[in-house]
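Extended Data, record histidine kinase
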Amino acid sequence: MKNYFLFILLNLFFIEPFYSQHTAGQLNDSAMAFYKENPNKAILLLEKAAKIAQSKNDTHEYYTSKNYLGIVYVDLGEFEKAKLLSQEALSKTKDSILMASALNNIGRCNRGLGLYEDALKNYLAALKIYEAKKDLNKQATVSDNIGMVYSFLGINDKAIEYHLKSKVVFESLKDKKGISKVYNNIAIIYANDGDLEKALQYFKYSLKIEKELKDKKGIAESANNVGAVFYYMQKIDSALVYFKQSAMIEKSIGNFAGVGTSYNNIAQVLIENSRVDESKIFIDSAYYFANQSKTAVDIETALHMYSQYYEAKNDTKTALKYFKEYSTFKDSILNFDTNAKVAKLEIEYQTEKKEKEILSQRADLAENELNLNKKNSYILGLIGLAIALSLLGFLFYNQQKLKNRQLQKENELKDALLKIETQNRLQEQRLRISRDLHDNIGAQLTFIISSLDNLKYGFKLPAKLSDKLKGISEFTTTTIYELRDTIWAMNKNEITLDDLQSRISNFIDKANSASEVVNFSFIADKSLPNQLTFTSVEGMNIYRIIQEAIHNALKYADATSISVQFKGINEELEISILDKGKGFDEKTVVMGNGINNMKKRAQEIGAQLKIESKLEVGTEVKVLLPINKKYDK
């Protein structure tokens, strides 16, 4: 913010007087000479150039200013605005070079908007003009852009063909920045195709050029790319060298966000490769620079690194502490992952405590047995002379009884340990499956949502495309919530009635807060037995049936109220979902997939599903589940 106000002051007191005597053409050229380093300053100069050209009826420089503004706005990601400016210049000018420049920039806008076929047409039209003018540098630039379009379309052979054409021209012109860009684009294609050796070769060449140009930002980015390829090739030491080089350069140019990200990457690589002790200093540095730059993602990642570090050091208590701090940074969509991880660390911590308690009990038992033996021996010694023969028989009987008791206690202890070990293994297996679901499905769905959000906020998208992306994001979010419910069921040996009622009550509370029109209520019969339990499959099926019934009521019934009731009737659990809505005629309405799914779920758990509906009155869905086998009366 301070830099921005400083720039405005400089513009008022220095820039304005300095350029006041310059022509529109001079201002245009000056702005484009430094627009990448300072786009805001370039925009001010180009707008001033346009005013000067308009006042002097210089249409060529006026539309040149407009097109140059379009080029600057493309780099700022404002594709729609940039496209309109270049389209205006294209429609009004008769200068072929300006037309080609406008066409190239419109192609960049369409590529950014995902309109790849339109972008290809614009680029080819621009290329035709530059070929006629024999402008080799511009030809190479446009050819490289065409290669990028083919890359986005997945036509990699064609993409590489155009990139290589550009490379030949840039090399003949000794345009090192152009060569670096081409090599970088080719490397990305090979990396996406899994050809890491070729990708590494091209990224290294790009890095070499950036070093020759002494472009620190370019060097940092290229070094990071090289490090990433080495990481995927499992060449960890080489990856670390380049990641550290990237971090050092980012630090030198004051990009603290980049420094935090690089140090987090280094720490992750070290922990994954059992070099835990080395990782601590990088985690500390990552956390410091992330806080300096106030980058939430990097702070969150650093806290996660701390948790992984202490977990690897077998300090589960500290690992749990950092993981709970890390969980506060995570988005609410990812709460199911946080809960699973915290549960795992809690189990490990409690298991350690239980093992120590068992060892302590064993020591106490051995000491008590030793004391008992000493007392028995002392008593037997005092009365041994008087009743020797009787005592021998009595002693034999007591020793035998003691041995039996000791064996019994040892067997009970072994059984208890075996039971605890079995339960721990089962719980670890469930947690492993939960982690696999999250890592392989949940993380990918979350990545999709994050990518869609980046597209929506990073680019100015058309309304239709934005709505489509919003629909995909909402569908993916719903899938994540369903995955969280599945993980909830998997993490339990059995689901009690209280667990199920609590889960349903939470769902109804969320639905109630989301709808201002519908009244929700949840009633549970207190006479239902507390010891009533369900398997995870039964509990999940009951929960899904209730979810589907409520969704149908909200979607089709125009309901004013929805009630969920749990009752115990004639040794049956009756679950009723009743809505006051418009109802339907059971004889004329075709049952959809939702109702068929509810019936299948009821069948799987041995329950009956009944649906009763009256027009303009409402609909009642009943699930009848026998409970006489669910608990011992």
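Summary. Confidence is low (pLDDT under 50) at residues 1-19, 332-343.
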